[in-house]
Structure prediction request, 375 residues.
Amino acid sequence: MARAVLHNAFCDELGIEYPIILAGMGVGGRATPPALVAAVSEAGGAGILGCSGLSPEETRRRIHEVRRLTDKPFGVDLLLPAKIAGSAPTRSGVREEIRQRYPEHYAMVRAMIREFGLPEAYPEDEIVVNIEYAEKVLEVVVDEKVPIFAAGLGDPSILIPRGHAQGMKIFGLSGSVRNAVRQKKSGVDAVIAQGTEAGGHTGAVATFPLIPQVVDAVAPTPVIAAGGIGDGRGVAAALALGAQAVWIGTAFLVAEECEIYAENKRQILDSDSESFRVTKVWTGKTVRTFQNDVVKAWEQAGLKTLDTPHQRILLEDLTASATKAGRYDLILNPAGQVSGMLKQSKPAKQIMEELVAGTIEDLNRINRDLRYSFG
Ligand SMILES: Cc1cc2nc3c(=O)[nH]c(=O)nc-3n(C[C@H](O)[C@H](O)[C@H](O)COP(=O)(O)O)c2cc1C
Prediction:
């Protein structure tokens, strides 16, 4: 059978076959490992390595690994946080600040660790995701001449002159029209507009109202739609709303190549959309995640969350304790509302084939079933 065709000018700009991009997802490197990134690129999309929280050396190692597996375009995603005043540059330093400045929060997490019957454990690395850290990883991205860079948070303008000089395509992610306009002004090649349905850090506006507003506000800059896209119908809808491509996270979390823990995949496959809610418990910012017993316990306690990075560092101690005990049901599992429609784990290649075929089927269905004309 001939190979399916789903292609536009934006695909040509990126050098890819289909307008489908695997979202870069952080989570300690488990969500978008090189094997998943390369599989998506090999299948005609663009795979993006989520490198937020990884060291510069590990980021470089992953870039090399993707290049070993594919010669197709791929990218790196990083969170570029704004300068955080008054926060220590190391994990142990931030922990000490929490102990001194926020004793009630510190005590509550220690109490939760005891109540869940977990051993005390601490993450091994000293990384705090701040702008100084992000700049070191950006150096690796430039040095390695990565074809695509996406800023999941913050302003990528520091990268633009050097990135563009070497042909890099640079995207900025945004959950609001205001921020999308800011991204455009900083000179990005495309704006990723992410609706609140999305997994991970997310804003308040849903994908359907967000995409057309961002398309109008940043024209002629291309828009990539994100948030709540789980099958070909979602891809067709995003294209109909004016997007040039889609940026898909959650639907690839259940790919066989994705290395999030089996228990977290199970939560995604077995739960309905309502189980994935927005909370500030994990990072101090709004994150859509599986509503597990940690989120419920915190919300019942009614204690206001801290800002980032303190809330994140505080909760990562709990995550380290839960991981040591094999209690993966108690760790952060960011995922979006499309989880409700995901029922089976599959190889990434099959997910890509089904997305492409589903989009074509849906476009054909519309053309077949709908009569339309201006007069
Ligand atoms: C597990 C997980 C981790 C994520 N981590 C990041 C990240 O590190 N950087 C980023 O730009 N976006 C991150 N996101 C958001 C995705 O890039 C993407 O915008 C989102 O998944 C799209 O919505 P969907 O989940 O409905 O497909 C993450 C999303 C998930 C589900």
